[in-house]
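Exercise 7 asks you to align residues with tokens for two separate proteins.
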Amino acid sequence: MNIRFQGIGRMYMGNNRISGMMKSTEQKLERQEKRDSQVAFFESRKDSLKNIQCGSAEEAARVLEMFHTYEDQIAAVKQEYNREQLMHSLDEAKERGEQLAKAIEKSEYKTPEERKKEMAEEAMGIDEEKGALSESLEEITGKLEELMTEEVSEMTEDIAKVQEEMKMDAPAQEAEKVLLQDMDPENPVPYKRLDVFA
């Protein structure tokens, strides 16, 4: 009795790729599904050979030859699947080795000078793009320039207003000077009585 598991890959994957499933796992399931469908096809052909009635030895030899051909084709499909799995495993191992080599290179012991240099390069952004310090410095200087131009324009407006007010209040300022001279503490003005009824 042969059990056929055709469509298992679709059960796991559906028509779309399941989130979180690695691409290599998806490809493995596709290869397994392809292998299973081909093996099932040749197994069904083998089973159909059992129903053939042979009248002569030549017909029996032909049916036997077809049976062996189907067996060889099933073995070839399985061998191809195993070869693909082996190549895939080698590719994955090579990729994993490269990732480990990069991780080891990053984690190598560094002298204090190398660590300081690396930290400085990272902060300044020498390695890749602009560093965090230079970006924030540019942003701060831009905002500072904007604020300075706004403040300068407000101050010039305020100065102009004060100058205009001073020109308008020139007589009031002279009167104030006269009053201040009259109230000089060194030369007090004698008290004069104010007679309202007189």
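Second protein for Exercise 7:
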Amino acid sequence: MISPIQTNFGVNPSDISFKCFLDSKILFLNGSFTVDTTNADYLAAGVLRLTFTDIELGNSHEAAVYVLNTKDGAHDITITKAWFEDGRTLCVMPVLEYEPLGEYTICILSAFFPKNVAGEVSLQTAVSVTPTINRGELAGYDIQYVRSDRWAMLAMTAASITFDETEEDIVVSLPRLQDLSLDFLPVIYTNSVSDTYGSKFYPAAISKGVLTISKDGISGDTGTTFSKFVKAFIALDQTDIPDYSDNE
């Protein structure tokens, strides 16, 4: 885990930590932080900046990061852009639409690619996963991953997800991903371009290859109106990755 040494938006750097891995000049970064939109430093910051000493990436291309509103039980989600500049500074664009809420959370499950770096390109093929659904229902799904020894990219879509009547979560085992863990990832269940606060999400987590999607008090019909989806780049915890090539 790494923490920034400086921020410009009023959050103590020691309160922010990320899991990261730098692989062939590609940075995989996982973590989140919450901003107070009434803070004087935040109001003065045109761009949110976090400075590190442990990262040497150079200037990067822009990446999408999730932005969440969970105030008073809300489950709003949108995206903003982030990038690295001056070698060690992570820049994040503020979300003006969320500022009247008083706070919002930046959730980074992203890969950052440096600019002007040439080198050998090694293509990796996405592998489809046939999950074991232990609780709830996941219909019309497509789950794929790409992985290296220290990072993974997971993408999932589903036509619908259904919670059992008496249960508050959906539990799905992902074969061949038993070493994969992530404290949080959002499963987006509406796709809105007209709502001021964007789309809606279910909070989810992965523990040793088991995906748990939580209802988290959400009521109403989330049905089949929109495709459900999630995408995340994940920095792995270990260097010795088990070989699951013979296991489904």
